[in-house]
Automatic annotation (TrEMBL):
Record protein name field: LWR-salt protein
InterPro entries: LWR_salt
Pfam families with a match to the protein in the record: LWR_salt
Organism: Halorubrum kocurii JCM 14978
Superkingdom, taxonomy of origin: Archaea
Length: 122
């Protein structure tokens, strides 16, 4: 299984004793998606809402820690996944729909990821 949450992030450089121009840069950051029913698999539920970052300041801190630079902006782009991971995710959601306050798996996926799921066939 292979999946990642893909974000566009803007970061700023503020080196001591030097001036950089530009001081802001944009890049893509991928956060590996945990396998369903393992620690961290609810990242999408805890961080996203309708394909938007739910708490951007908290996410910017997380991204800053992971990247080692000050992240000043971030946007969710997609869950990039293979079919095996998506099927396992759908199954794990179906096993506990009450956790998501939903009646169907598709409702859960849309509620958190919108239409931002990109299945890659290998």
């Amino acid at each position: 299984m292979d999946a990642a949450y893909v974000f566009r992030v803007e970061f700023r450089l503020a080196p001591e004793g030097a001036v950089v121009d530009p001081d802001r840069f944009e890049t893509t950051m991928e956060v590996p998606a945990s396998e369903p029913d393992t620690d961290g698999w609810l990242f999408f539920r805890d961080r996203l809402w309708r394909a938007e970052i739910g708490d951007e300041s908290s996410f910017r801190r997380l991204a800053s820690d992971r990247l080692g630079v000050e992240v000043v902006a971030a946007d969710f782009r997609e869950l990039r996944t293979d079919r095996e991971h998506l099927d396992a995710l759908r199954s794990a959601i179906a096993d506990d729909l009450d956790r998501f306050n939903a009646d169907a798996v598709d409702e859960v996926l849309h509620k958190y990821l919108g239409s931002s799921i990109h299945v890659r066939e290998e």
